[in-house]
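Researcher: Go.
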Amino acid sequence: MSEPVRIIPLGGLGEVGKNMTAFEHRGRMILIDAGLSFPRSELLGIDLVLPDFSYVAEHADVLDAVILTHGHEDHIGALPYLLREIGTDAQVWGTRLTLGLVKSKLDEHGLLVDTELVEIAPEGGRTRVGPFEAEFVRVTHSVPDAVAVVLHTEHGAIVHTGDFKLDETPIDGRTTDLGRLGQLGDAGVALLLADSTNAERPGRTPSERTVGSALRDIVRQAPGRVIVTSFASHIHRIQQVIDAAAACGRIVSVIGRSMNRNLNIARNLGYATVPDDLLVKPRRLEEFMPHETLVICTGSQGEPRSALTRIAFGDHPAVQINSMDTVVVSARAIPGNEVKVHETVNRLCRLGATVLTEDTTYVNASGHAAAEDLSRMLETVRPRAFMPIHGEFRMLQAHARIAEQAGVPAHAVRIAENGTVLELDGDGLSVVGQVEAGTTLVDGMNVGSVRDVVLRDRRHLASDGVLIVVATIAADSAEPIAEPEVIARGFIEPSDDGNELLEQAREAVERVLAECQAHRTTEVHLVQQELHDALAELVSHVTGKRPMVLPVVVEV
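Model: Structure:
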Protein backbone atom coordinates (compact mmCIF):
# COMPACT_ATOMS: atom_id res chain seq x y z
CA MET A 1 0.00 0.00 0.00
CA SER A 2 1.38 3.44 -0.97
CA GLU A 3 2.20 5.83 1.84
CA PRO A 4 0.55 9.26 2.03
CA VAL A 5 2.47 12.53 1.80
CA ARG A 6 2.18 14.59 4.98
CA ILE A 7 2.04 18.37 4.61
CA ILE A 8 2.52 20.53 7.71
CA PRO A 9 2.50 24.34 7.38
CA LEU A 10 4.57 25.77 10.22
CA GLY A 11 4.24 29.43 9.25
CA GLY A 12 2.65 31.69 6.65
CA LEU A 13 -1.01 30.77 7.13
CA GLY A 14 -3.29 33.36 8.71
CA GLU A 15 -0.41 35.85 8.47
CA VAL A 16 1.93 37.52 6.03
CA GLY A 17 5.44 36.34 6.86
CA LYS A 18 7.50 33.52 8.43
CA ASN A 19 6.67 31.10 5.64
CA MET A 20 7.73 27.51 6.26
CA THR A 21 6.08 24.21 5.27
CA ALA A 22 7.20 20.65 5.97
CA PHE A 23 6.63 17.81 3.48
CA GLU A 24 7.10 14.25 4.74
CA HIS A 25 7.16 10.94 2.90
CA ARG A 26 8.48 7.47 3.74
CA GLY A 27 9.97 8.66 7.03
CA ARG A 28 11.95 11.57 5.54
CA MET A 29 11.25 15.31 5.45
CA ILE A 30 12.02 18.46 3.49
CA LEU A 31 11.11 22.07 4.19
CA ILE A 32 10.02 24.66 1.67
CA ASP A 33 11.18 28.09 2.85
CA ALA A 34 12.30 29.31 6.27
CA GLY A 35 11.14 32.89 6.64
CA LEU A 36 10.67 35.48 9.34
CA SER A 37 8.30 38.36 9.99
CA PHE A 38 8.70 41.69 11.72
CA PRO A 39 7.16 42.41 15.12
CA ARG A 40 3.81 44.07 15.62
CA SER A 41 3.68 47.15 17.83
CA GLU A 42 2.59 45.18 20.91
CA LEU A 43 5.77 43.06 20.81
CA LEU A 44 7.78 45.72 22.59
CA GLY A 45 11.54 45.44 22.10
CA ILE A 46 11.31 42.36 19.87
CA ASP A 47 13.48 42.50 16.74
CA LEU A 48 12.27 39.52 14.69
CA VAL A 49 9.53 36.89 14.76
CA LEU A 50 10.43 33.37 13.59
CA PRO A 51 8.40 30.20 13.19
CA ASP A 52 8.36 27.75 16.08
CA PHE A 53 11.12 25.28 15.19
CA SER A 54 10.18 22.68 17.80
CA TYR A 55 8.55 20.23 15.39
CA VAL A 56 11.50 20.38 13.00
CA ALA A 57 13.97 20.05 15.89
CA GLU A 58 12.18 16.93 17.13
CA HIS A 59 12.55 15.41 13.65
CA ALA A 60 15.91 16.90 12.69
CA ASP A 61 17.39 13.45 12.08
CA VAL A 62 15.01 12.91 9.12
CA LEU A 63 15.32 16.40 7.58
CA ASP A 64 17.08 16.12 4.21
CA ALA A 65 16.78 19.57 2.68
CA VAL A 66 15.45 23.11 2.91
CA ILE A 67 14.25 24.43 -0.46
CA LEU A 68 14.07 28.22 -0.79
CA THR A 69 11.64 29.57 -3.38
CA HIS A 70 13.17 33.06 -3.53
CA GLY A 71 15.29 35.57 -1.63
CA HIS A 72 12.81 37.61 0.40
CA GLU A 73 13.20 37.82 4.18
CA ASP A 74 9.81 36.23 4.81
CA HIS A 75 11.12 33.14 3.01
CA ILE A 76 14.84 32.98 3.88
CA GLY A 77 15.32 35.19 6.96
CA ALA A 78 14.84 32.43 9.55
CA LEU A 79 17.25 30.00 7.89
CA PRO A 80 20.35 30.81 10.02
CA TYR A 81 18.31 30.55 13.23
CA LEU A 82 16.75 27.29 12.05
CA LEU A 83 20.11 25.70 11.22
CA ARG A 84 21.62 26.88 14.48
CA GLU A 85 18.64 25.55 16.44
CA ILE A 86 18.36 22.08 14.92
CA GLY A 87 22.05 21.45 14.22
CA THR A 88 21.33 19.41 11.12
CA ASP A 89 23.37 18.64 8.04
CA ALA A 90 20.39 19.25 5.75
CA GLN A 91 21.13 20.67 2.32
CA VAL A 92 19.94 24.16 1.38
CA TRP A 93 18.56 24.45 -2.16
CA GLY A 94 18.04 27.75 -3.97
CA THR A 95 18.59 29.54 -7.25
CA ARG A 96 21.82 31.42 -7.89
CA LEU A 97 20.65 34.80 -6.58
CA THR A 98 18.76 33.28 -3.65
CA LEU A 99 21.87 31.42 -2.53
CA GLY A 100 23.92 34.58 -3.01
CA LEU A 101 21.63 36.41 -0.57
CA VAL A 102 21.64 33.44 1.82
CA LYS A 103 25.42 33.09 1.87
CA SER A 104 25.94 36.48 3.47
CA LYS A 105 23.40 35.61 6.19
CA LEU A 106 24.98 32.26 6.93
CA ASP A 107 28.42 33.84 6.98
CA GLU A 108 27.30 36.44 9.57
CA HIS A 109 26.07 33.59 11.79
CA GLY A 110 29.22 31.50 11.30
CA LEU A 111 27.29 28.74 9.50
CA LEU A 112 28.47 29.05 5.91
CA VAL A 113 31.37 26.61 6.11
CA ASP A 114 29.18 23.85 7.58
CA THR A 115 26.18 24.28 5.27
CA GLU A 116 25.88 22.46 1.95
CA LEU A 117 24.34 24.77 -0.67
CA VAL A 118 22.83 23.25 -3.80
CA GLU A 119 22.02 25.52 -6.74
CA ILE A 120 18.61 25.06 -8.36
CA ALA A 121 18.46 25.00 -12.16
CA PRO A 122 14.97 26.01 -13.30
CA GLU A 123 13.83 24.11 -16.39
CA GLY A 124 16.51 21.55 -15.49
CA GLY A 125 14.11 18.63 -15.15
CA ARG A 126 13.60 16.39 -12.17
CA THR A 127 16.16 15.84 -9.44
CA ARG A 128 16.15 13.89 -6.21
CA VAL A 129 15.62 16.01 -3.08
CA GLY A 130 15.19 13.89 0.02
CA PRO A 131 12.27 11.48 -0.46
CA PHE A 132 10.93 13.35 -3.51
CA GLU A 133 11.60 13.77 -7.19
CA ALA A 134 11.60 17.57 -7.35
CA GLU A 135 11.30 19.97 -10.23
CA PHE A 136 11.65 23.75 -10.24
CA VAL A 137 9.60 26.03 -12.48
CA ARG A 138 10.54 29.66 -12.98
CA VAL A 139 8.04 32.26 -11.79
CA THR A 140 8.10 36.05 -11.87
CA HIS A 141 8.15 37.95 -8.58
CA SER A 142 9.53 41.20 -7.17
CA VAL A 143 12.94 39.60 -6.68
CA PRO A 144 14.75 37.81 -9.54
CA ASP A 145 15.30 34.06 -9.66
CA ALA A 146 12.06 32.97 -7.97
CA VAL A 147 10.77 29.45 -8.54
CA ALA A 148 7.77 27.25 -7.93
CA VAL A 149 8.54 23.83 -6.45
CA VAL A 150 7.01 20.66 -7.89
CA LEU A 151 7.18 17.45 -5.87
CA HIS A 152 6.39 14.38 -7.97
CA THR A 153 4.73 11.67 -5.89
CA GLU A 154 2.92 8.42 -6.55
CA HIS A 155 -0.32 10.27 -5.78
CA GLY A 156 0.40 12.93 -8.39
CA ALA A 157 2.36 16.16 -8.50
CA ILE A 158 2.29 18.70 -5.67
CA VAL A 159 2.85 22.25 -6.95
CA HIS A 160 3.97 24.94 -4.47
CA THR A 161 3.98 28.25 -6.35
CA GLY A 162 6.03 30.28 -3.88
CA ASP A 163 5.34 33.99 -4.38
CA PHE A 164 4.48 34.81 -7.98
CA LYS A 165 2.85 37.19 -10.44
CA LEU A 166 2.02 36.81 -14.12
CA ASP A 167 4.12 39.62 -15.59
CA GLU A 168 4.29 39.32 -19.37
CA THR A 169 7.02 41.99 -19.67
CA PRO A 170 9.32 41.46 -16.66
CA ILE A 171 12.53 43.44 -16.37
CA ASP A 172 14.77 40.41 -16.95
CA GLY A 173 12.52 38.88 -19.63
CA ARG A 174 11.93 35.74 -17.56
CA THR A 175 8.20 35.18 -17.39
CA THR A 176 6.34 32.67 -15.24
CA ASP A 177 6.60 29.37 -17.14
CA LEU A 178 2.90 28.76 -17.72
CA GLY A 179 3.80 26.34 -20.50
CA ARG A 180 5.46 23.91 -18.11
CA LEU A 181 2.75 24.43 -15.50
CA GLY A 182 0.17 23.59 -18.17
CA GLN A 183 2.04 20.38 -19.02
CA LEU A 184 1.96 19.43 -15.36
CA GLY A 185 -1.76 20.13 -15.35
CA ASP A 186 -2.24 17.87 -18.36
CA ALA A 187 -0.34 15.07 -16.62
CA GLY A 188 -2.40 15.55 -13.44
CA VAL A 189 -1.68 17.72 -10.41
CA ALA A 190 -2.87 16.25 -7.13
CA LEU A 191 -2.45 19.41 -5.03
CA LEU A 192 -1.74 23.09 -5.62
CA LEU A 193 -0.51 25.38 -2.85
CA ALA A 194 -0.58 28.97 -4.09
CA ASP A 195 0.26 32.51 -2.97
CA SER A 196 -2.85 34.31 -1.63
CA THR A 197 -1.45 37.79 -0.85
CA ASN A 198 -3.50 39.65 -3.46
CA ALA A 199 -6.51 37.33 -3.63
CA GLU A 200 -8.79 40.18 -2.57
CA ARG A 201 -7.57 42.46 -5.35
CA PRO A 202 -9.62 42.18 -8.56
CA GLY A 203 -8.11 42.13 -12.03
CA ARG A 204 -4.44 41.62 -12.84
CA THR A 205 -1.26 42.84 -11.22
CA PRO A 206 0.46 45.44 -13.43
CA SER A 207 3.89 44.80 -14.91
CA GLU A 208 6.98 46.02 -13.11
CA ARG A 209 7.90 47.98 -16.24
CA THR A 210 5.01 50.40 -15.68
CA VAL A 211 6.75 51.59 -12.52
CA GLY A 212 9.94 52.34 -14.42
CA SER A 213 8.28 54.92 -16.70
CA ALA A 214 6.60 56.59 -13.69
CA LEU A 215 9.92 56.78 -11.85
CA ARG A 216 11.65 58.36 -14.86
CA ASP A 217 8.98 61.06 -15.05
CA ILE A 218 9.27 61.79 -11.31
CA VAL A 219 13.07 62.01 -11.40
CA ARG A 220 13.02 64.19 -14.52
CA GLN A 221 10.51 66.67 -13.07
CA ALA A 222 11.84 66.83 -9.50
CA PRO A 223 13.30 70.30 -8.79
CA GLY A 224 15.78 69.07 -6.20
CA ARG A 225 17.09 65.88 -4.68
CA VAL A 226 15.12 62.64 -5.12
CA ILE A 227 15.05 60.01 -2.35
CA VAL A 228 13.58 56.60 -3.21
CA THR A 229 12.94 53.85 -0.71
CA SER A 230 11.99 50.27 -1.53
CA PHE A 231 12.62 46.75 -0.29
CA ALA A 232 16.34 46.02 -0.22
CA SER A 233 15.79 42.75 -2.10
CA HIS A 234 13.74 44.33 -4.91
CA ILE A 235 16.65 44.25 -7.35
CA HIS A 236 14.50 45.06 -10.40
CA ARG A 237 13.03 48.13 -8.70
CA ILE A 238 16.49 49.32 -7.62
CA GLN A 239 17.74 48.79 -11.16
CA GLN A 240 14.89 50.89 -12.58
CA VAL A 241 15.60 53.68 -10.12
CA ILE A 242 19.28 53.65 -11.08
CA ASP A 243 18.37 53.66 -14.79
CA ALA A 244 16.06 56.63 -14.22
CA ALA A 245 18.85 58.51 -12.43
CA ALA A 246 21.31 57.78 -15.23
CA ALA A 247 18.82 58.91 -17.89
CA CYS A 248 18.30 62.19 -16.05
CA GLY A 249 21.99 62.84 -15.39
CA ARG A 250 21.94 62.26 -11.63
CA ILE A 251 24.52 60.49 -9.51
CA VAL A 252 23.26 57.81 -7.10
CA SER A 253 24.02 57.17 -3.45
CA VAL A 254 22.82 53.95 -1.84
CA ILE A 255 22.16 54.21 1.91
CA GLY A 256 21.39 51.26 4.16
CA ARG A 257 23.43 48.18 4.98
CA SER A 258 21.03 45.63 3.51
CA MET A 259 20.46 47.72 0.37
CA ASN A 260 24.19 48.00 -0.29
CA ARG A 261 24.79 44.32 0.45
CA ASN A 262 22.01 43.08 -1.83
CA LEU A 263 22.94 45.42 -4.65
CA ASN A 264 26.58 44.30 -4.48
CA ILE A 265 25.52 40.64 -4.54
CA ALA A 266 23.22 41.27 -7.52
CA ARG A 267 25.96 43.13 -9.40
CA ASN A 268 28.54 40.43 -8.74
CA LEU A 269 26.14 37.72 -9.96
CA GLY A 270 25.03 39.67 -13.04
CA TYR A 271 21.48 40.49 -11.91
CA ALA A 272 22.06 44.27 -11.78
CA THR A 273 24.09 46.64 -13.94
CA VAL A 274 25.41 49.85 -12.42
CA PRO A 275 28.29 51.92 -13.85
CA ASP A 276 30.88 52.50 -11.13
CA ASP A 277 31.10 56.23 -11.87
CA LEU A 278 27.37 56.60 -11.19
CA LEU A 279 27.65 55.63 -7.50
CA VAL A 280 28.97 57.90 -4.76
CA LYS A 281 29.30 57.46 -1.01
CA PRO A 282 26.72 59.32 1.13
CA ARG A 283 29.39 61.62 2.56
CA ARG A 284 30.08 62.95 -0.97
CA LEU A 285 26.50 64.08 -1.62
CA GLU A 286 27.33 67.60 -0.44
CA GLU A 287 29.77 67.91 -3.38
CA PHE A 288 26.84 67.96 -5.84
CA MET A 289 23.87 70.21 -6.39
CA PRO A 290 20.62 68.68 -5.10
CA HIS A 291 19.12 68.36 -8.60
CA GLU A 292 22.15 66.28 -9.58
CA THR A 293 21.59 63.61 -6.92
CA LEU A 294 19.35 60.65 -6.20
CA VAL A 295 19.38 58.60 -3.00
CA ILE A 296 18.16 55.01 -2.75
CA CYS A 297 17.65 53.91 0.82
CA THR A 298 16.11 51.36 3.15
CA GLY A 299 13.11 52.14 5.34
CA SER A 300 10.06 51.50 3.17
CA GLN A 301 8.39 49.77 6.15
CA GLY A 302 9.18 52.46 8.72
CA GLU A 303 11.77 50.28 10.49
CA PRO A 304 13.02 52.20 13.57
CA ARG A 305 16.74 52.41 12.67
CA SER A 306 16.44 52.30 8.89
CA ALA A 307 17.89 55.04 6.72
CA LEU A 308 14.60 56.71 5.75
CA THR A 309 13.30 56.72 9.33
CA ARG A 310 16.51 58.36 10.55
CA ILE A 311 16.21 60.91 7.74
CA ALA A 312 12.59 61.62 8.71
CA PHE A 313 13.58 62.16 12.34
CA GLY A 314 16.53 64.41 11.41
CA ASP A 315 18.98 61.84 12.70
CA HIS A 316 20.95 60.96 9.56
CA PRO A 317 24.51 62.31 9.20
CA ALA A 318 24.47 62.61 5.40
CA VAL A 319 20.89 63.54 4.45
CA GLN A 320 18.77 66.33 5.89
CA ILE A 321 15.35 67.02 4.35
CA ASN A 322 14.51 70.39 2.78
CA SER A 323 11.52 71.76 0.88
CA MET A 324 12.98 70.96 -2.55
CA ASP A 325 13.29 67.22 -1.85
CA THR A 326 11.02 64.60 -3.41
CA VAL A 327 10.66 61.33 -1.48
CA VAL A 328 9.26 58.28 -3.27
CA VAL A 329 7.99 55.39 -1.13
CA SER A 330 8.12 52.67 -3.77
CA ALA A 331 6.61 49.83 -1.74
CA ARG A 332 3.35 48.81 -0.14
CA ALA A 333 3.22 48.62 3.65
CA ILE A 334 3.26 45.05 4.92
CA PRO A 335 0.11 44.38 6.99
CA GLY A 336 0.89 45.55 10.53
CA ASN A 337 3.44 48.17 9.42
CA GLU A 338 0.95 50.80 8.26
CA VAL A 339 1.22 53.00 11.36
CA LYS A 340 5.02 53.13 11.24
CA VAL A 341 5.01 53.93 7.51
CA HIS A 342 2.41 56.69 7.94
CA GLU A 343 4.39 58.21 10.79
CA THR A 344 7.53 58.33 8.64
CA VAL A 345 5.61 59.89 5.73
CA ASN A 346 4.03 62.50 8.01
CA ARG A 347 7.38 63.49 9.48
CA LEU A 348 8.87 63.87 6.00
CA CYS A 349 5.94 66.08 4.99
CA ARG A 350 6.37 68.22 8.13
CA LEU A 351 9.99 68.80 7.11
CA GLY A 352 8.76 70.16 3.77
CA ALA A 353 9.41 67.24 1.40
CA THR A 354 7.05 66.21 -1.36
CA VAL A 355 6.23 62.57 -0.56
CA LEU A 356 4.87 60.25 -3.25
CA THR A 357 3.37 56.87 -2.34
CA GLU A 358 1.28 54.31 -4.19
CA ASP A 359 -1.76 56.16 -2.81
CA THR A 360 -0.81 59.37 -4.61
CA THR A 361 0.91 58.21 -7.81
CA TYR A 362 1.96 55.04 -9.57
CA VAL A 363 5.30 54.24 -7.89
CA ASN A 364 4.76 50.60 -6.95
CA ALA A 365 3.67 47.36 -8.58
CA SER A 366 3.00 44.34 -6.42
CA GLY A 367 5.01 41.17 -6.80
CA HIS A 368 1.93 39.04 -6.11
CA ALA A 369 -0.76 37.85 -8.48
CA ALA A 370 -4.20 39.48 -8.21
CA ALA A 371 -7.50 37.60 -8.48
CA GLU A 372 -7.62 37.25 -12.25
CA ASP A 373 -4.05 35.95 -12.35
CA LEU A 374 -4.75 33.51 -9.51
CA SER A 375 -7.71 32.20 -11.47
CA ARG A 376 -5.48 31.75 -14.52
CA MET A 377 -2.95 29.80 -12.46
CA LEU A 378 -5.71 27.48 -11.20
CA GLU A 379 -7.08 26.98 -14.70
CA THR A 380 -3.57 26.23 -15.99
CA VAL A 381 -2.64 23.70 -13.28
CA ARG A 382 -6.15 22.23 -12.82
CA PRO A 383 -5.41 20.60 -9.44
CA ARG A 384 -7.59 17.93 -7.90
CA ALA A 385 -7.12 19.58 -4.49
CA PHE A 386 -6.16 23.09 -3.47
CA MET A 387 -4.76 24.78 -0.35
CA PRO A 388 -4.29 28.57 -0.28
CA ILE A 389 -1.09 29.68 1.45
CA HIS A 390 0.85 32.88 2.19
CA GLY A 391 -1.74 35.26 3.55
CA GLU A 392 -3.99 36.41 6.35
CA PHE A 393 -7.18 34.41 6.83
CA ARG A 394 -9.35 36.72 4.74
CA MET A 395 -6.85 36.37 1.86
CA LEU A 396 -6.88 32.57 2.15
CA GLN A 397 -10.68 32.63 2.17
CA ALA A 398 -10.83 34.86 -0.93
CA HIS A 399 -8.40 32.54 -2.73
CA ALA A 400 -10.50 29.51 -1.77
CA ARG A 401 -13.52 31.15 -3.42
CA ILE A 402 -11.49 31.80 -6.57
CA ALA A 403 -10.48 28.12 -6.63
CA GLU A 404 -14.09 26.96 -6.41
CA GLN A 405 -15.06 29.34 -9.22
CA ALA A 406 -12.17 27.91 -11.27
CA GLY A 407 -13.62 24.40 -10.94
CA VAL A 408 -11.93 22.88 -7.89
CA PRO A 409 -14.65 20.97 -5.95
CA ALA A 410 -15.52 22.66 -2.67
CA HIS A 411 -14.71 19.52 -0.66
CA ALA A 412 -11.20 19.52 -2.17
CA VAL A 413 -10.38 23.07 -1.03
CA ARG A 414 -8.70 23.22 2.38
CA ILE A 415 -8.08 26.39 4.39
CA ALA A 416 -5.55 25.27 6.99
CA GLU A 417 -3.79 26.89 9.93
CA ASN A 418 -0.19 26.80 11.05
CA GLY A 419 0.39 23.40 12.64
CA THR A 420 -2.38 21.60 10.75
CA VAL A 421 -1.25 18.14 9.64
CA LEU A 422 -2.64 17.15 6.25
CA GLU A 423 -2.21 13.95 4.29
CA LEU A 424 -2.37 13.52 0.53
CA ASP A 425 -3.15 10.07 -0.81
CA GLY A 426 -5.13 8.49 -3.60
CA ASP A 427 -8.39 9.66 -2.02
CA GLY A 428 -7.34 13.31 -1.88
CA LEU A 429 -6.31 15.76 0.83
CA SER A 430 -7.47 15.33 4.43
CA VAL A 431 -6.72 16.82 7.85
CA VAL A 432 -5.32 14.22 10.26
CA GLY A 433 -3.92 16.15 13.21
CA GLN A 434 -2.21 19.18 14.69
CA VAL A 435 1.33 19.98 15.86
CA GLU A 436 2.72 22.90 17.83
CA ALA A 437 3.35 25.84 15.54
CA GLY A 438 3.68 29.11 17.43
CA THR A 439 6.37 31.76 17.19
CA THR A 440 9.97 32.21 18.27
CA LEU A 441 10.94 35.74 19.27
CA VAL A 442 14.35 37.31 18.66
CA ASP A 443 15.29 39.98 21.21
CA GLY A 444 18.79 41.25 20.53
CA MET A 445 21.09 38.25 20.98
CA ASN A 446 18.36 36.18 22.66
CA VAL A 447 16.44 33.75 20.49
CA GLY A 448 13.35 32.08 21.90
CA SER A 449 14.06 33.02 25.52
CA VAL A 450 11.61 35.95 25.65
CA ARG A 451 8.52 34.68 27.46
CA ASP A 452 5.05 36.10 27.94
CA VAL A 453 6.00 37.48 31.35
CA VAL A 454 8.74 39.63 29.78
CA LEU A 455 6.38 41.05 27.17
CA ARG A 456 3.74 41.59 29.84
CA ASP A 457 6.23 43.60 31.91
CA ARG A 458 7.20 45.65 28.88
CA ARG A 459 3.57 46.42 28.08
CA HIS A 460 3.04 47.31 31.76
CA LEU A 461 5.96 49.72 31.67
CA ALA A 462 4.79 51.22 28.39
CA SER A 463 1.24 51.84 29.56
CA ASP A 464 1.65 52.74 33.26
CA GLY A 465 5.33 53.52 33.86
CA VAL A 466 7.51 52.63 36.82
CA LEU A 467 7.94 53.84 40.40
CA ILE A 468 11.27 53.01 42.07
CA VAL A 469 11.94 53.45 45.77
CA VAL A 470 15.36 52.99 47.40
CA ALA A 471 15.39 52.54 51.18
CA THR A 472 18.50 52.02 53.34
CA ILE A 473 17.88 50.26 56.68
CA ALA A 474 19.86 48.77 59.54
CA ALA A 475 20.18 45.01 59.13
CA ASP A 476 19.35 44.17 62.73
CA SER A 477 16.50 46.62 63.43
CA ALA A 478 15.10 47.89 60.08
CA GLU A 479 15.81 51.43 61.30
CA PRO A 480 16.08 53.86 58.36
CA ILE A 481 19.69 54.97 57.86
CA ALA A 482 19.11 57.58 55.15
CA GLU A 483 16.29 59.50 53.52
CA PRO A 484 14.33 57.24 51.11
CA GLU A 485 14.70 58.05 47.42
CA VAL A 486 11.62 57.85 45.15
CA ILE A 487 11.89 57.96 41.36
CA ALA A 488 8.86 58.10 39.05
CA ARG A 489 9.05 57.52 35.29
CA GLY A 490 6.40 57.21 32.60
CA PHE A 491 3.11 58.09 34.30
CA ILE A 492 1.17 61.29 34.86
CA GLU A 493 1.72 63.03 38.15
CA PRO A 494 -1.20 64.96 39.66
CA SER A 495 0.49 68.32 40.29
CA ASP A 496 2.05 70.79 37.92
CA ASP A 497 5.50 70.62 39.47
CA GLY A 498 5.44 66.85 39.99
CA ASN A 499 6.48 67.08 43.64
CA GLU A 500 3.19 66.32 45.40
CA LEU A 501 3.02 62.64 44.49
CA LEU A 502 6.70 62.09 45.24
CA GLU A 503 6.27 63.72 48.66
CA GLN A 504 3.27 61.51 49.44
CA ALA A 505 5.29 58.48 48.31
CA ARG A 506 8.18 59.40 50.62
CA GLU A 507 5.77 59.78 53.54
CA ALA A 508 4.31 56.35 52.73
CA VAL A 509 7.82 54.84 52.63
CA GLU A 510 8.71 56.41 55.99
CA ARG A 511 5.46 55.12 57.52
CA VAL A 512 6.08 51.58 56.25
CA LEU A 513 9.67 51.59 57.50
CA ALA A 514 8.54 52.84 60.92
CA GLU A 515 5.98 50.02 61.14
CA CYS A 516 8.61 47.47 60.11
CA GLN A 517 10.99 48.80 62.77
CA ALA A 518 8.22 48.68 65.43
CA HIS A 519 7.42 45.07 64.54
CA ARG A 520 11.13 44.22 64.09
CA THR A 521 10.42 43.08 60.53
CA THR A 522 13.97 42.89 59.20
CA GLU A 523 13.69 40.33 56.40
CA VAL A 524 14.42 42.23 53.18
CA HIS A 525 11.76 40.52 51.05
CA LEU A 526 9.06 41.29 53.66
CA VAL A 527 10.07 44.96 53.80
CA GLN A 528 10.03 45.09 50.00
CA GLN A 529 6.56 43.57 49.91
CA GLU A 530 5.20 46.09 52.43
CA LEU A 531 6.70 48.97 50.45
CA HIS A 532 5.31 47.60 47.19
CA ASP A 533 1.75 47.23 48.52
CA ALA A 534 1.67 50.67 50.14
CA LEU A 535 3.03 52.54 47.10
CA ALA A 536 0.90 50.65 44.59
CA GLU A 537 -2.24 51.51 46.55
CA LEU A 538 -1.20 55.16 46.89
CA VAL A 539 -0.41 55.72 43.21
CA SER A 540 -3.54 53.90 42.06
CA HIS A 541 -5.69 56.07 44.34
CA VAL A 542 -4.04 59.37 43.35
CA THR A 543 -3.44 58.88 39.61
CA GLY A 544 -5.67 55.99 38.53
CA LYS A 545 -2.55 54.30 37.11
CA ARG A 546 -0.94 51.06 38.15
CA PRO A 547 2.79 51.53 37.48
CA MET A 548 5.34 48.82 38.07
CA VAL A 549 6.55 49.40 41.65
CA LEU A 550 10.14 48.35 42.27
CA PRO A 551 11.23 48.66 45.92
CA VAL A 552 14.97 48.35 46.52
CA VAL A 553 16.01 47.75 50.14
CA VAL A 554 19.67 48.12 51.06
CA GLU A 555 20.80 46.62 54.39
CA VAL A 556 23.68 48.26 56.26
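Model: The chain has three domains: 5-203+366-447, 209-356, 452-555.
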